[in-house]
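Researcher: We're reviewing a set of sequences before deciding which ones to prioritize for further study. For each one, I'd like a predicted 3D structure that I can look through quickly. This is Serine/threonine-protein kinase ATR. If possible, include the structure in token form so it fits the rest of the review sheet.
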Amino acid sequence: MLCLILNVAQFGYVTILLCVTFHILGVERVSSFLSNIPNLLQAKASLRCGSFARALLHWELAYGEDTEAQQSAFVTGTAICRSNTDHTLGFTKTVSDQVGTNSILSSDIQSTLQFSNGLRKTVFTILIGLLDTYASLHDSDGLAGVLSATQLAFTAFSHEFNKGKQHESKSCNNNMELSSDTTQRFSLLRALELENEGQLDMAAAAYEHSLATSESNYRSSQCQQPSKEIRDNQHLLMYSGLFRCELPDPARLHGLVERAGALVRKSKSHSNTFGNSTVWVDCLNAHRAEAAWRLGDWETLQETTNMNLFECSWSIGLGRLFLAMKDKRTSDWSKILARLRIDQVTELGAAALEGPGGYIRAYDTIVRLSSLSDIELISSLGDVIMNEIRNPTNSRSSENKLSNIVETSLKLLETRIRVSRPTFHTLEPVLAIQHAALQLVTSALSSLNSDAYQISNREVLNSTILRLRTALGYNWLERAKLARKSGQFMAAYTCVLRAEDFGIPDALLERAKLLWQTDKREAAQACLDKGIPDVFGCSIFNVRNKQSNENIEVSTEYRTISAQQALLLRTRYCEETNRYDFETTGKLYEQVCGFNSGYEEAHFRLARYVDRARTEAVGCKQQNALIKVALKHYGLALSYGSQFIYQSMPRLLTLWLDYGQDSVRNFHELNKSQKYTEENNLHSEQKVFNEVQELMRINCQRIPVYQFYTALSQLLSRVCHEIPAVVTTLIELVVRIFEAYPLQTMWFLIPLNDDSISLCNHLKTVCGLFMTADRRELRNFSLRQTVRPITRLIESSEFSRILIPIHRQLVPNHLLPNATSEQIAHHWPFAEQPDRLVCLTHIEDSVEILGSQTRPKKMTWVGSDGREYIIVAKPNDDLRKDSRLMELNGMINKFLVINENTRRRALQIRTYAVIPLSEKGGLIEWVRNTQPFRSIITRLYNEIGKPINWANMSRVAPLLEDPLSYSGRECYARTCAVMSMVGYVLGLGDRHTENILFDSISGDLVHVDFSCVFNNGLTLPWPERVPFRLTRNMVHAMGPTGYEGTFRRCSEAVMRLLRHEIDPLLAVFRPIYFDAVVEQTGNVRSNALPGGESTGRTRRGGSTSDGNASSDLDLTERATRAATEKLARMEDRLKGKITEHDGFSQILPMSVEGQVDTLIKEATDVDRLCQMYKGWMPFL
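Model: Here's the predicted structure for Serine/threonine-protein kinase ATR, in token form for your review sheet.
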């Protein structure tokens, strides 16, 4: 029996082994078969089935196989080279025509294009496919990159075309077979680009121009024309593009319905003229149906949906669903809804096969499914309301229940809008569908008003109709806001008019903002001047009655949020146009602040206005009065919320602390001066100083503690203030923060305590281990054997709770705007609740020593949640600047989320925790799944048998690329753009291949080591010549277009954001520079290197101290002057000046586009790169 069991087990093992072997062989055979399929064919198939990310992969692989593309990438890293179009693209006189045509045509029509003799058809097919795929992905950045990279080809083609016309003026040139409609196809190309950028009005004009030009050329031209099939397909796609651009504008819907209807009737009656009339009817009916249900034109919608009962596109299906909902055909409604959902789920399943990258493809499908849920919710709400209205025994409790159901449903619809991607392309159709469904329910309820029901039911009916009409009005208002922010001003104006028809008070603000954004500033102010009394019934403070004693307070019944927002908007417009003098504008702000307590933005705007006036009024007698007003309202703003915390908190502390220093200086000057020795002057200065300190003590009690936690580093940097009263207040404030959040605050206080914290001392010991030359070969060690006290301390039963220092546990979350007082008082600022914070329970015994020069120690900390966290102990490096700059990056991330252009691109900076333990070391959170740029590129070159050789690397083509993930490459290009612009503004240098990491999961670019900042790279022994790292391999990894497209557009968006937020950035930068001054002064006194650089870096090891400096010049004064100059240079960079240029280049600022273009050219300039330090590896 035992032998039988063994034989069976052995047989089973052999069977499993054979199955695994056959499976592996099968996979290899399938992979071999797929590898033999040309990339071009796979790209076309992927595009046709809707797998856009995969199509993009194969287009790029196919283009990379081209010899000319390989040569271009070898030199610049960009496969599509802008500077040598003839060399890369062949006969450029036909490139523009093919690209222009096929960027509009679908992939099914590409085979009908004609090419001249000798032209490489494959190259143009790939370019066309790239344009088509980016357009399908709604990736306007990628589309712009392809268009920009081929723009010189269009110029060359126009030149050749005009040259050919001079030789043959009356006949067509056979060698230029597409010259007869060149202008038309340039218009089509521009239309496609404009449509993808969201400029729908201009795109519609371009489509109209193309249609008119095409008809004119067809009637009058004697030149060779494209075939009838191609021309018909072009016209159909032109009309489709035109109707897509017109659909979001309610004012154009009537014209769209009539025009599409006329085209449908014409195509059916002249089928020989329009070729395949069925295609025309189906395509045009889809646009006509959508316009009809947007308008509520149910007769036209019925006619449209009945033309082809077998056609069930998304727009036609929605039309049938709305008709069934209107006619109360419950059974048909359920079937149509189920069919629409099945169609969308089928597309969702196909997208799921692409893995994580399929989310991009599936997003529109997910939004459509959500819209179907909205329709179902609104339909069920209508049924519930009907049942309640028709119930004659309706009670007061049931009325309240109905009201709660209506409010809950409408709140759910609003929430779904807020969680959707905030883009015009996504949100506008969702709002339109919600509006159409709500309009159907409201119309059905309004038709009941003529029937005889009980009075109570009629009251309920009228109140419900009124609430639904209000929801419809706010729907129009949301569409107006969305259109205005997207630049669709005509559509926005129409939506504002509709919102005003429903009596929405906030429509006044939207109308004023729309007028202001379209440069009608006087009209915007006049709109508010007249509208505020009419709409809100409250008086406004005007310059004409400022001298009277008229009470500017308004009655309580008008103290609404909307009225206060309108008054604040009017006051802001008055400030920006300098409509009134300082006193009048200040009273306007005071009116808004007194209108309703608790309005954070009003107090912030007043404080900033007064602060700016104080800055400009140097030497004014009112300086003391202005600083008290600014401090008061900054404090009030912070006590009412955290929407403007990064603008208010740094400025509040800076004003207070700098005033203390100025008061000491003024006091000494008064004592020395013979002119101001009177006692009353000294008494006056002392009185103002006491009032300021008392005001700050009130602010410290009024402002929630978590607001001060965000500025803890700034507070700690000023604890050595010259005035004891200020130091006392600072210490009390730090103690309050520590009492509220002891686990988080402890890590910030560690650098100030040398001996009191045992764990800190042990960690410092770990940092400094094995630094001598005789132990350089050691790669790991046992913590228990080497630093046994730390293991005993952690294993002790008396060991306190120590928070694991990771970024998500140290960075606070802020309140949402318009938070209530209760929410402000009980807000917990961290992601994890106090009982769920992850604390240290154990440190693994084995510690790895990393191979860099400073020999960091890689430790594994085990948390109370059972997970492992990697913490690196880095010696011989001052991490204080790294810590402060990481906080700054966190603040910039907040701005990136708020700004619309950066939010829709998902721009961000990867942040991590940095904990200084002393001036000579600290802890760094290990960024998981990352590898240094150098290790990646070294492995890639080793794999092809060409290891890195310092002398010959410029002769090796770039290899860094990520062809497997569209989303990964987008993340890489975007994070690279963000850090390039932020690093340039900060003056960040030393971006060698060890300081740039790549995330192997997401593709993000992560920068580390921020010690060489504030343009210190220019003072190195080998000065840096480029603004940021953008070498061949980094450009090559961005795809065929290189830095054109995603990188350039994201860089422009980030630079535009940084310029817009210049005030809060400078407010945060200033204390960082102050810290740098303190550190630099300490280093100079210790005979360290100038500029605050650490001696632990070989590149900076050659610097020498400035021994010739005047010994009697105060070190702090010199350092302060140097920091002020650096801060001024950074401000110039934020204003658009290239500070590294000399002479006249710095006089006037550049535009955002010009500045970014200049920086990219400098970063990729070979002459500059060849002057870089060889350890920077500019050839990679």
